[in-house]
Amino acid sequence: MRQKKTTLANQMRSLHTEIGDTAWSDEQRSKWDAMKSDLSNLDTQIEREEELRSLDQSFSENNQEQHQEHRNGGQEKTAEQRQKQAFDVFVRSGLGEMDPELRSVLKEMRAQGTDPDTSGGFTVPKEFQSRVIDKMKAYGGVANIANVIYTSNGRELPWATSDGTEEVGELVGENTQTGEGDTTFGTVSLGAKNLSSKVIRASNALLQDSGVDMEAYLTGRIAMRIGRGESKLLITGSGTGTPLQPKGLGASVTGSTTTAATDFNWKDLTSLKHAVDPAYREGQCYWLFNDNTLKIVSDLVDGQNRPIWLPALSTDVPATILGKPYQIDQGVADAEANAKFAYFGDFSKFIVRRVNGMMIKRLVERYADYDQTGFLAFHRFDCLLEDTAAIKALVLKAA
């Protein structure tokens, strides 16, 4: 089915190339629209098959782990296996049910963190955090194209910022002193804003059922809540308030292009693209908007009635708009009056800082009368735009 999709995408790109700069006829547009509809149907089928394949793979991996444990027959476990076992016991039964060996594992894991928590917190295994971060990709599009750094602690990290678009060298004559061109640097600190998953409640009957993969259950819930929360703040964070919000993309991007009318067309996107200095456009630039905007953009045509959207051929040849790839992030605003609804530029200049050592707390007494146990996860992060010339925004004109 993937091969069929690739073939269809190749045909669409070939049609686009063959027509070239000539104005598209109604017949050619109808052919394109039909192929685009078929491509969308294939995407839906592939997504459904991948979901089923993922479930099968997860089941197979669990069986392999159980088989491996049986074959080991009590042999010494790896550090990763011991951490996973300690985490499973903590989730299901709490600290009180841990034997001395598992308690020593917990002590080692806490020692790896900056601020060991003695009030019921648990520094999750690295494998668990990696799975959460991987699942978060589905909710936080901008983090997939930003420059993401990981630190072992949450201490403030000074970071230099600048705008070098106006800097230029000079021609000098023989025996002539050169002029000075100091770069104006700003300094911003990357902190560690604390994001909570909110309480995730699970029935004690579920926790006692050894057939339920509690790690997978918590991974999915935490990734969904933390992923959406982080994604929203990376875009809409004001840099102010109590508690202090990170300064997200919307507040950091200073250069904006306003659409010519109360809706937008391909010319507005072209204006946004060229608002970014050519020096940045030579690199890996992206469009960023939400899925509602993509629906509109993918149907736009230029002055010759040519589609400005081209389908992906593979992960190495992604779908493009006006020749540049795009990323979807639901935290970006819809195309509404005065809203920054589309961004374009070099997102490697947008820095996302994440702190290793995700913490989970187990809440027993709070929900005892419901015969439930609560879980609360904490994720620390921050962001900044180190070069304001690298990314620009498109604002929809008010009526």
Write the SSE topology.
Layout: H1 2-19, H2 26-72, H3 79-93, H4 100-111, E1 121-123, H5 126-136, H6 141-145, E2 147-151, E3 157-161, E4 186-190, E5 193-196, E6 200-203, H7 204-208, H8 214-236, H9 249-252, E7 256-258, H10 266-275, H11 278-281, E8 286-289, H12 291-297, E9 309-310, E10 320-321, E11 324-328, E12 340-345, E13 350-355, E14 359-363, E15 372-385, E16 391-395
Parallel strand pairs: 2-13, 7-16, 8-11
Antiparallel strand pairs: 1-14, 3-4, 5-15, 6-15, 8-12, 9-10, 10-11, 12-16, 13-15, 14-15
Helix pairs in contact: 1-2, 3-4, 5-8
Molecular structure report:
Strands 1, 2, 5, 6, 13, 14 and 15 form a 7-stranded mixed sheet that branches. The protein has a 7-stranded mixed sheet with strand order 7-16-12-8-11-10-9. A two-stranded antiparallel sheet has the order 3-4. The radius of gyration is 26 Å and the shape is globular. The protein contains 12 helices and 16 strands. It starts with a helix and ends with a strand. Residues 112-120 have low confidence and may be disordered. Helix content is 40%, strand content 20%. It has helices spanning 2-19, 26-72, 79-93, 100-111, 126-136, 141-145, 204-208, 214-236, 249-252, 266-275, 278-281, 291-297, and strands spanning 121-123, 147-151, 157-161, 186-190, 193-196, 200-203, 256-258, 286-289, 309-310, 320-321, 324-328, 340-345, 350-355, 359-363, 372-385, 391-395. With 399 residues, the chain is of the alpha+beta class. It has a domain at 118-163 and 186-290 and 329-399: 2-Layer Sandwich (Major capsid protein gp5 fold).
